[in-house]
Amino acid sequence: MNPRILIVEDEQLIRWSLLKKLQAAGYEVSDACTGQAGLDAIGKTAFDLIMLDYKLPDMTGLEILRQVRESDSDVVVIMMTAYSTVESAVEAMKLGAYDYLTKPFNMDEVIRTVAKSLETTKLRREVRELRRHISHEYSITRVIGKDPSMTSLLETISRVAGSGASTIFLRGESGTGKDLIARVIHYNSDRAVRPFMNITCTAISENLLESELFGHEKGAFTDARNAKKGLFELADGGTIFLDEVGDMSPGLQAKLLRFLEERTFRRVGGTSEISVDVRIIAATNRDIEQAIKEGQFRSDLLFRLDVVAIDLPPLRDRGDDVNLLAQYYVDQFSKDFRKPIKVISESVYKKLRSYGWPGNVRELRNVIERAVLLSKNDCLAAGDIVLGRPAKLQDGGEFKLPPEGVDIKSLETSLIRQALAYAQDNQTQAAKLLGMSRDTFRYRLEKLGLV
User: Fold this and answer.
1) From edge to edge, which strands make up the β-sheet containing 76-81?
2) Which listed residue, of 7, 259, 311, 335, carries a Cα 20 to 30 Å from 87's Cα?
3) Which residue from 91, 99, 90, 95 is spatially nearest to 117, judged by alpha carbons?
4) Which helix (H) or strand (E) holds 122?
5) Do both 11 and 84 map to the same domain?
6) What residues make up the domain containing 330?
7) 439 — alpha (psi -120 to 50), left (phi > 0) or beta?
8) Is there a single domain that holds both residue 375 and residue 398?
9) Pair (125, 154) in one structural domain
10) pLDDT band at 329, cuts 50/70/90?
């Protein structure tokens, strides 16, 4: 459908000239000669652009502009007048006019302005639709769980999201959904229209992480050819999600603590204090108290982060939620893969409930995805469910997982050593085997004392 434009102009020759020119350019154009006729048209049709004369027989264009803004905040309005003054232009812009055209018109300029205005309308509507979709995607009601532990969690999330809490700490095992909960908190808060920025603290090296968070000035280091804003500046008014904060280096822990205490920071290589309003949601799967005892995490930083603490229960402690989540993922992947699976056998539910789920919801999702993809029937059976399957190497070999009860650090060390041995100490190849970038792999080597 061609863009729809409304011209509200009392001078017949001008109105006719604009109408013909815009129709020739391929637009669907309506016109009105009074303000009331324009409002009547606006009430019946959704226009993409409205061109308003500043001075009409029965009212001013600004009066119409006010009513348009109340009913449709996305449509773009261009004001037209033969009596342009700075005051009138400023007033129109304050009320939300996109642009201001002075009579007599240069028709080529009109066409260019109209094209730019319509692109703005399109972008505004796309952003609104995206926000609507995200708001639905991360609605609190979309978090699946009826176990009492989850009911309590959702009540806490609802209260925290609507509060003024500036620091929230999520604790839970890997795969329990900390990223999802962080987004739910953000998109159900007053900050939802502002940015949500997330970063995994172990994904990049310490020096690069500092620059990513706080930005840097031109010349701060060898490759700093231009000044760059960090996530704290870009997220002003919104939320920053710091995942795996328990593994943050001591130097960055100190910088984060300073920010939490003063709410100001300096860019790398900078001298000016920058103040921003951001909500910090930090998350970890580590035993932070143990990390403090081992001298790997600052106790004063924990006090600052732990203002609002939320513990995410592991899947094995959530009872029948395993079955609810399994059904949800079966429905999702049946649709994605166009598989006619409509029934889950009781043997599947029994098998899922008896498993310990060390990888939690993330592991369950992967198990169901594989089962749906490879199932040959319309009923998912116990034989379709493969649990505790070891990771495969590229040529069909297998990583050997340590026995249950081994801590995360030991497990990670074991897998990295196996990958290095298999890749004959080629770190790039070992990183690929584990699905990491070489920088992340190198960082983990240093963190675990393997170099």
Assistant:
1) 28-32, 4-8, 49-53, 76-81, 99-102
2) 7
3) 99
4) helix 107-137
5) yes
6) 316-384
7) alpha
8) no
9) no
10) very high
